[in-house]
Amino acid sequence: MEFLKKLGIEGTNLGTSTGQKFIGSGAKETISSHTPIDGSQIADTTVTTREEYDQVVNTALEAFEEWRMTPAPKRGEIVRQIGLELREHKEYLGRLVTYEMGKIYQEGLGEVQEMIDICDFAVGQSRMLYGKTMPSERPRHRMYEQWHPLGITGIISAFNFPVAVYSWNAMIAAVAGNVMIWKGSEKTPLCSIAVQNIIAKVLKRNDLPEGIFNLVTGGREVGEWMTEDERLPLISATGSIRMGKEVAKTVAGRLGKTILELGGNNAIIVSKDADLEMAARAIAFGAVGTCGQRCTSTRRLIIHKEVFNPLKERLVEIYKEVNIGNPLKEDTLVGPLIDQQAIDNMQNALQEVQDEGGEVIYGGEVLENKQLDGGHYVRPAIVTAQNDWDIVQEETFAPILYLTQYSDLDEAISLHNGVKQGLSSSIFTLNIREGETFLSARGSDCGIANVNVGTSGAEIGGAFGGEKETGGGRESGSDAWKAYMRRQTNTINWGSEMPLAQGIEFDV
Ligand code: UN1
After folding, report:
1. Per the count of CB atoms within 10 A, which of 99, 156, 173, 328 is most buried?
2. pTM of full prediction above 0.90
C-alpha cells in the first residue's frame, strides 16, 4: 500500500526510537497491528525492553543538556519545520490514522490538521514564554519570574487520537525546552512510528542530537516504567479514569507532576428555545463521529420536555441516513469500533440500560459486513434512560446516546453536572439568559462549555481538559504551556545596601 511505503512503515518491525534512529533489533516481544476495517494484520512492531528504555532515558537526558540551552525561538523553528513536514504528509498520515484506528478519512485528515495547527501555535508560543515583572518592596531591587524547562516529559496517549494528542503535548513541551518520551497506544503503534519518521526527517536535516523526540512501544509495563521513573518529572497521560488514577497515585508518590486528560461523560442540554435543526446536526456529529470514541463524544442529551419528541424523531431520521462501513470510503460517516472488546462493552452497556428500564429507540446492533469481514461495525444507538442509572454514569467508549427529559433549567443543569466526569458540555438555546446561566459559576462544571456548539471537535487554541474525574489537566492552547515548565522567581539587588524584605532589621 502506497501510504504505508511513503510513511516508512511497510513491513516494519520497529518500535523504539531516540529520534532519528530506531534502536534495538532481534527476536523479542512484538505487537501486531491490525486494522479494525477488516481485521487484517498490517505489520508487527517491537516492544521496548527495559534495557532499551534505559538507553532512551539516558539519551534523552543527554539531549536535554543541549536542547534546554537552545534559544526558545530556535526550538520553535524546529517545530515550524515539523509543521511543514506534516503538511507534506497530511494525506498519507490521515489515511494511516483511518486504516489503523478506524475513524473516517475526513476525521483522519482533521487529526493531522490538529497536529499542524498546534505546530503553528507552538511556533508563536516559542517567542511568548512570558514571565511577569513585579515591583520589589526593596530599593534598587528588581524582581521577576522566568520559566524554565522541566526535563523529560513522558507522554502516554490513547488509541482514539493516535497522533493529535501526542502533538498537543510534544510540540508545546518541545518549544518549552523539554525532551519527550512518547508511549502511544499499543492499539495504534504504526501511527506512532509514522509520526516518529516524519519528525526524524527534520531532526536529521538540522543535525540535532539523538534524544529530543523519543518513542517507546508497549503496554502497561512500559507505562509503569515511565510513571515510576524519577528521571521523568512530568507525565502527561490520556486515557481511562481507572488508568489515570493509577498514574496519579504513582507519580504523586514521587512528587512528580502530571497532566491528566481522562474520561468524559459529555452532555448537551437542548432547550425549548433551541434551533433544533442546528442542535440535531451537532448532536449527530458528537454522538456518532469517530464511532463514539472521542473523549468529547456526546453521550447524554438532556432535552426540554416540549421538544423531546420532535428532536428524538429528527435524530432517528438522521441516524437512519448515516452510512456505516469502510472509513476510507468517501460517503461513510461511521467506521468500525477499535476492537471486539469495544463491541462487547457496547453490547453489555445496552443490556444493562435495558435491564434498568431504558428503551433502545434506534440501533445498537452489531453489523455483519460481508465485504469487510473481520471488522468491528455497529449501528449507533439512541436510548431513553435516567441520568442516575449506573451505566449512564459511566463512559462507554461507543456510540450510545442516552436521552433524558427536563422541565426547568435548574433541573437540567443539576442533571448535567450529576456525573463524576467533567470534560465537555453544551447547551443549545437562543435564549441569552439560559446560555449565560449555563456558562456562569452555577452552570456547567466542565472544562469546556459551549453554547450552540456541540461537545466534540474543540479547536487547539483553547486549553483542553476537564474537571472532577476527568483529571484536571489542560493541554494544547491558551496558557497550557506553563504545565510543561517550572517557574522561578528571581530577585536582583543592584544597590550597595542589603535591605531585608518585610522591613526586618538584622544587624550583623
Ligand atoms: C480526545 O478524544 O482524546 O475536541 C481528544 C475534540 C478533538 C480532540 C479529542 N479536538 O473532539
Report:
1. 173
2. yes
